[in-house]
Amino acid sequence: MEKIKAVFNWSGGKDSAFALGRVLDNENIEIVSLLTTVNATHKRVSMHGLREELLDLQAEAIGIPLLKVYVPEGQSMAEYSRTMAEQWTILKQWGITHAIFGDIFLEDLRRYREENLGSQGITCLFPIWQEDTGKLPDVFHRSGFKALLCCVRENQAAALGAAVDASLPALLAPGTDACGENGEYHSFVFAAPFFKKPISFVTGEQVFRSFDLAKADGTTEVQGYWYLDILPA
């Protein structure tokens, strides 16, 4: 049986890492490349704020080539969609037929991905879809992954820098999804069962920024976030 050739959409965070672990156990799927969008101005992973150098170290630890798509700061959702459509046209020429994501339960986001990529003949896969997000931080940690929160919404400031494990939900604001699936936080994975070695790092300053965020339905909303700067050791 010929293997499925896929690109894995890598964010550098826990959901992405957990989903990748599932896929690497599947003998019918070949991950040709990781794919990450990077802010062209600041050279950081979009939304996570993770330095490009750390992204490169993650890819090196995983042992899969990394394709970085540089996007301008403040790019609209329509412009972003055009940028990615151009990229997927190239990826199809590589023989890529599938795109893999670490989404868990956001139906509108899944529909957006499936409609946009489906129109280009790309099939989307979601390895951890409908996982129990309340239990996932603990399962993630007990499975040999290590991560910390590198970006949180302004009402989650107390959790910035916290480890992703069973203790995390108690640090989050009431009503927060334990996995931050609604964008409450983002994380940085520095160790995983499939990493060749853990990533050494030091933490730096905390920075607050606010954004007009584009939503899947085409509207925007202002959100404030605290970022923990993380640097390679």
UniProtKB/TrEMBL annotation:
Keywords: ATP-binding, Nucleotide-binding. The keyword Nucleotide-binding applies. Gene3D superfamilies: HUPs, putative n-type atp pyrophosphatase, domain 2. Residues 5-203 form the Diphthamide synthase domain. It holds the Pfam family Diphthami_syn_2. It comes from the Bacteria. GO terms for molecular function: ATP binding. The keyword Nucleotide-binding applies. This is ATP-binding protein. It comes from Pedobacter yulinensis. The lineage of its organism: Bacteria, Pseudomonadati, Bacteroidota, Sphingobacteriia, Sphingobacteriales.
